[in-house]
Design brief:
single chain, eight-stranded parallel barrel, two-stranded parallel ribbon, 10 helices, globular
């Protein structure tokens, strides 16, 4: 596989410091560090788990946790009104997801792939401990967030400017996840000149597992033939609704617990008509603040594109390197993120 580097563009206007969620510079020589293996009995039992094994949702606890996430907001935006209660087995808002992001072919796209598996997991669980300490009332759900379809700088055989990770590579992520008990996995899609309707079904066999969830990246959803890296891409609510409908059908057909569905965002045009995004009992929507920069800039992006356009749950990304590029040259802390309105339910480290 030859995944060439593409140059990411920056954001717009006062958000020009942002370059989005990834730095797709990968080489075939950057091999996966973990080989595929047969599933253990524990993995098999995890894969076969269904929503019928979970108790019904305690709506009083759900309402209390959603109010807690709203963090004293008095505008009426948060918590989101008229949202459906999730099916049994829902992770949010009962837990907070803390995850490492990346691709095993690249050391430049995030901690997942930059470090050897055991070291990467040690670092991830150090972050988990910080969140457990700052908010002991909310258990932490550790996760790995793997880019399974990567926007590329070359067209490939079909001219779609994206590379699909081979199954053995994706299987390696599950091998790593199995090193820890009850870890979940997100598969992320950067469609480039392809479409989400073309890319999502290829991952269905993985999404049928109860511990597998989904992320999509509007930054690399290109329209009108524009190449990835030349402009920030976009998804409309209608496309997001198609994805959530697809996930909802998988959940119902396979008697699964709800899927978490993460949508990356750091500009207004990355997600259009957000008020039209449908909420479903089978899917938990996370609008994820995906921009990098100094704390003040990140807080501004969160305020404009997450707080002001409520969907259901919120996420926040910390860049270990890019967030240090400008003064005050430091990462935001869990204590600072807990002051946000709403408090993030999904924390991603890259």
């Amino acid at each position: 596989m030859n995944i060439k580097k593409i140059t990411l563009i920056t954001g717009i206007a006062i958000y020009a410091a942002f370059t989005g969620c990834s730095e797709p510079g990968t080489k075939a020589s950057e091999k996966a560090t973990v080989k595929d293996s047969t599933k253990t009995g524990e993995e098999e039992s995890e894969i076969k788990a269904t929503s019928s094994e979970y108790p019904p949702i305690d709506t009083a606890v759900y309402n209390r946790k959603m109010k807690q996430l709203a963090n004293g907001d008095t505008t009426g935006k948060w918590p989101v009104k008229n949202q459906p209660y999730p099916l049994p087995g829902a992770i949010l808002p009962f837990k907070r997801v803390v995850t490492y992001y990346g691709n095993l072919y690249s050391k430049k796209m995030g901690a997942l792939g930059e470090y050897a598996p055991k070291e990467m997991l040690r670092m991830l669980y150090a972050e988990v401990a910080k969140w457990e300490k700052i908010d002991p009332s909310t258990p932490v759900q550790p996760a790995l967030h793997y880019i399974a379809v990567v926007a590329a700088g070359d067209p490939g055989k079909d001219g779609k400017y994206r590379n699909r990770m081979p199954d053995k590579q994706i299987d390696s992520v599950f091998t790593i996840a199995a090193m820890k008990k009850d870890m979940i996995v997100f598969l992320d899609i950067q469609v480039a000149l392809s479409t989400i309707k073309e890319e999502l079904p290829r991952l269905e066999k993985y999404l049928k597992r109860p511990n597998v969830h989904l992320g999509i990246d509007p930054e690399f959803s290109m329209k009108g033939g524009i190449l990835p890296g030349r402009k920030i891409g976009t998804y409309d609510a209608s496309e997001i609704n198609w994805v959530s409908g697809y996930l909802a059908k998988l959940v119902k057909d396979n008697n699964l617990p709800p899927k978490i569905f993460v949508v990356h965002r750091f500009t207004g045009k990355m997600v259009t008509n957000s008020k039209n995004i449908k909420l479903r009992p089978e899917v938990q929507m996370v609008m994820h603040m995906d921009g990098w920069g100094e704390p003040e800039l990140k807080q501004g992006t969160h305020r404009y594109f997450i707080y002001n356009e409520p969907v259901q749950f919120s996420g926040f990304k910390i860049f270990y390197k890019n967030d240090l590029k400008k003064a005050p040259n430091r990462l935001m802390t869990p204590a600072e993120l807990m002051k946000l309105k709403p408090q993030p339910s999904y924390i991603q480290y890259q």
